[in-house]
Amino acid sequence: MHVRPATHEDRAAPADLHTATVEAFGPDGYDAEQVEEWAGADERSPTDYTVDAAGEHFTVAVRDGAVAGFGHLVLDAGEVHAVYVHPDHARHGVGSALLAELEGYARGRGRTELALQSSLNAVGFYERAGYERVGEDESPGGLAVVEMEKEL
Questions:
Q1: C-alpha–C-alpha distance, residues 1 and 67, integer Å
Q2: Among the CATH numbers 3.30.565.10, 3.40.630.30, 3.10.180.10, 3.60.130.10, which is that of 2-112?
Q3: Domains of the chain by residue range
Q4: Is 4 left (phi over 0), alpha (psi -120 to 50) or beta?
Q5: Which of 28, 88, 103, 151 is the least buried, fewest Cβ under 10 Å from its Cβ?
Q6: Are strands 56-63 and 144-151 parallel, antiparallel or unpaired?
């Protein structure tokens, strides 16, 4: 597996990967209607993913020749915006490698802590990575999320 910064050629992968991941793992924390809305397959397009925005870091993990996952860090806000792993590549260290890359990037640019809003189905993943629960909220789409933080 190889983790690297995303390129414009990678922009198509996150839309499909996002939908597949939510459909596979979303039911572990949400009901069918919430999963369908979150997956948003009909509403998501490759242009939704800006891989080179200033103050952000967008990375992909490539495994067996395919984009197996992506991670997105909003450096200015100190926020991990996303870590998604395609179900075909889950439980092979892809998510951990992506998160480690985002944290290393943030640390290298002077961040001493990161925050994120975890979906209910991913809380355990982030806790194993050292994130602590600090509250509960709703995502912009209205899903219940757990606010988490980690000192780097």
A1: 10
A2: 3.40.630.30
A3: 2-112
A4: beta
A5: 151
A6: unpaired
Per-residue 3-state assignment (H helix, E strand, C coil) for 28-95: HCCCHHHHHHHHCCCCCCHHHCCCCCCCEEEEEEEECCEEEEEEEEEHHHCEEEEEEECHHHCCCCHH
% of residues, the chain, pLDDT over 90: 74
Identity of the amino acid at 125? F
pTM of the model: 0.92
Distance CA 8, CA 27 (A): 31
Question: pLDDT, tens digit, for every residue of 87-140?
Answer: 999 999 999 999 999 999 999 999 999 999 999 999 999 999 999 999 999 988
* Tokens found for residue 3: 């983790």
Sign of CA dihedral 151, 121, 61, 7: negative
